[in-house]
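Most newcomers find our protein records easier to grasp once they have seen one. Sequence and backbone structure share a record, each on its own labelled line. Nothing more is needed to start thinking about how sequence determines fold. As an example, a complete record with its sequence and its structure tokens follows.
=====
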Amino acid sequence: MLRPRRLLLIITLLAVRIVAAEPPPPVNLGWDRVPLYVHFGKRDGDLTTAELDFLAAHAPVVALEKSHGAAVHGSTEAGIAATARELKRRNAGIRVLFYLNAFINWPGYAAQRTYRDEWTLRDARGEIVRHPSGTPRPDPSQAAFREWWAEVVAGAHRDAPLDGLFADALPQALSPALARQVGAEKARAVVAGLREMLALTKARLGPGRIIVVNGTRTKDFREILDWEGVDGVMIEHFAAFGKDGPADIKADLETLALAAARGKFAVLKGWPGFNWLDRGMMARPRAELLALARERVTFPLACFLVAAQPGSFFAYSWGYTADHGMLEPYAEFTRRLGPPAGAARWEGVSATRDFAHASVRVDLASRTAQIDWK
């Protein structure tokens, strides 16, 4: 029989381990500086020491994309795990998220060896439903697939110091295009399955880890904010990809407040006026692209600042690999910001807002902005 003092010691150690395994979700970083969220993958090699040091010092929340480190470590799971360990060694407080697409069977995961073909989504003719890239889609209406998917995420967290999940491509299931492919009844079953799958995954991860989903787009897909298991949402196409009119931009900014009202956070993904799909721009020297990105950060950042809520995050780059600008310093992200003096003051599609160390002005119609740092 254990002595009382030794039993108390064991209980205390177990409690410490539980607390250490479940850090609080990063829903409010405060207003000291621009609250950043970094989302990328490096597919052709490990991060360099300089890149790891930069992330550990500048990125409170990092999501590591599909195929990250797979070329070196043999799988996405192993690549993400290796980077997570290095980042945590440098900064124990950094939050690192695992990436898994909810509606596209991207390759590069060791878990694909246990995926079953019968879980692939098919239309009424029995033809495989595919993403425009040709990659097959899974069928979340099947309970066995949902169990498998949730276990892939949970297993990644058992093997690495991870803090949650980025679940991608939910709008592709909510889009009317899916009903045209598989029929309205099947489309509804897929969406219901996705909701259940995320709730199941959240339960497996526990309350100390978060699930961020992609996402909302202007006024579309906001229903995701009410889904069980979803802690945060990404607004990925902000002022870009054909969603750049004043009404679209303002609708996206309003989503930041809608998320906060539901006790959830939102990531606003800003763009420098070009993206990785623009072949002409991508042919330019990378130094030129970075200079343009630094020159053009003011408008998306100012938009974010006039609408930001406690728990809002800002991301900025021209794509999702290590070469697309997320691993570079921007002077605006290092400046002191301080808390806002109040909500933004809107006149039509123009707004101003004051912070302790900055004054912000935006005009959505002219796409102009000014940030005066104090």
Q: What stands out?
A: Confidence is low (pLDDT under 50) at residues 4-25. The first strand starts at residue 37 and ends at 40. The two ends are 65 Å apart (CA to CA).
